[in-house]
Amino acid sequence: MKDFDIIVIGKGLVGSAAAKYLSFKNKRIAIIGPDEPSDYDKSTVFASHYDQARVQRLIGKDKVWTRLNLDSVKQYHAIQEQSGIQFHNPVGCLYVNPEGRDEYLNKAAYLASQFNLDYTAYANGSELASDFSAYSFPQNAQGLSEQSPSGLINPRLLLKAQLEIFKQQHGVNLKDTILDITYHKRGYIITSQEGHTYQAPKILLAAGSFVNFHNLIAQKLDLQIKNEIILLAKVTPEQASELTNLPSLLYEIDNTVTEGIYLIQPVQYPNGHYYIKMGCNLPEDIYFDHIEQVQHWFRKGNSDQFINRLKQALLKILPNIEPIEYLTKRCIINRSVHGRPYIGESNQPGLYIASGCNGYSAMCSDAIGGVAAHLINHRKLPEYYTEKDFEIFYH
Fold it and tell me: Which intervals hold domain FAD dependent oxidoreductase (predicted)?
């Protein structure tokens, strides 16, 4: 059995950030979790960060999300410098509601003033078309744009960068899949699918949408866990080059066919090809109660049945593109009761939680991990945050 002072369970964006921050102040730190699966039929847990592009914005839904976004972005230069890995492309971010003003746009001015952030407001579709000619929006649309450092991040490379810094700090990176956490008089004993056991007095559970599965926590978190489908539209390198200045888009459409679209300019994927990425919610989305349902979704889910619908939505927003192929990817997100992350010590002493990120964690994962690490190190949250901000709700 290997002993550590702190073990982070979950090797995603939040877990890797937390492990990095914990390694700055602690000696014997381990992060445990599987790497990206090469064979989905053999893997037992999955994640949505096996991807090349995520939206980065600053002005969030409220003060907490805005501060998390801002705190994360402030660290990007240092993370890239220390790791030698570039993951951030500050091409700007555009938020549009095709119906006009909404709650987010009404709050934006206040949040921007609280954090001294700049943005440009757009009162109609003509104003949007003037500045963003590649996009097409209805005349009733209203929106706002943020310039650099908003834009996009590469989640695979951000994860790699965090783990590289963790390695530099002599953190221990283990590839096991944890199935059981049991409280013991000297802390917690952790058992992996591979048959290994580990021990530590403090655990951070950052297992994403899999936090309630296996035997990781005695009382399950109150989370909705749902699927999400991504459309990848393959374009030529020439088309990709023409769209290198296209800002990331958050499009608050809700027309009973698609809801909450996000769209990212062409990005090169590991196979060498360039894809425009678009994701959204659909009325047919599936909510999961059991791990077997999630595994079936990732392995055999019929996401391709929605290609035509998603293609039509994409071409309505970007009418001048000429994709040469369409693919889908299957993802998963979770939603908390209050719409913010769950970060805190669970009702099991020494077992901490960082989960429930509502689909927003990629752009602020560094700060979420930093908040969790600060709580473990100092027994309190960082300044400006309250326990109510991240209150944990259980089933």
Answer: 5-375
Q: Please, what sign has the CA dihedral across residues 122, 124, 127, 129?
A: positive
Q: What order of strands is seen across the sheet that includes strand 172-174?
A: 172-174, 29-32, 6-9, 202-205, 351-355, 342-345
What is the C-alpha separation between 181 and 178, in angstroms, rounded?
8
Mean pLDDT computed over 301-325: 97
Domains of the chain with CATH codes: 2-51+156-220+338-390 (3.50.50.60), 89-150+224-335 (3.30.9.10)
Residue 185 has pLDDT above 90, yes or no: no
Q: Is the pLDDT of residue 47 over 90?
A: no
Are 328 and 307 in contact, with CB atoms under 8 Å apart? Answer: yes
Q: Measured between alpha carbons, how far is 77 from 149 in angstroms, rounded to an integer?
A: 10
Can you tell me the distance from the alpha carbon of 147 to that of 145, in angstroms, rounded to the nearest whole number? Answer: 7
- The rounded radius of gyration (Å) of the Cα atoms in the chain is 21
pLDDT band at 279 (very low <50, low <70, confident <90, very high): very high
In the predicted structure, residue 37 carries a pLDDT above the cut 90:
no
Q: How far apart are CA 155 and CA 163, in angstroms?
A: 12
DSSP per-residue string spanning 6-34? EEEE--SHHHHHHHHHHHTT-SSEEEE--
Share of the chain above pLDDT 90, in %: 95
| Per-chain mean pLDDT for the chain | 96
Residue 331 CA to residue 298 CA, distance in Å, equals 7
Torsion angles phi and psi, residue 28, rounded to 5: -105, 85
Looking at the whole model, is its pTM more than 0.90? yes
Residue 305: other Cβ atoms inside 10 A:
11
d(CA 34, CA 36): 7
For residue 238 the two structure tokens come to 């020439």
Q: How far, in Å, CA of 10 to CA of 144, rounded?
A: 35
Backbone φ and ψ of 284, nearest 5° = -85, 5
Burial class for 127, CB neighbours closer than 10 Å (0-12, 13-18, 19+):
middle
Q: Is 151 helix (H, G, I), strand (E, B) or coil?
A: strand
Q: Is the pLDDT of residue 337 over 90?
A: yes
**Residue 282 pLDDT greater than 90, yes or no:** yes
Any idea what DSSP says for residue 141?
Answer: -
Angle between helices 361-378 and 155-168 (to 10 degrees): 30
Q: Is 224 in contact with 287 (CB distance < 8 Å)? A: yes
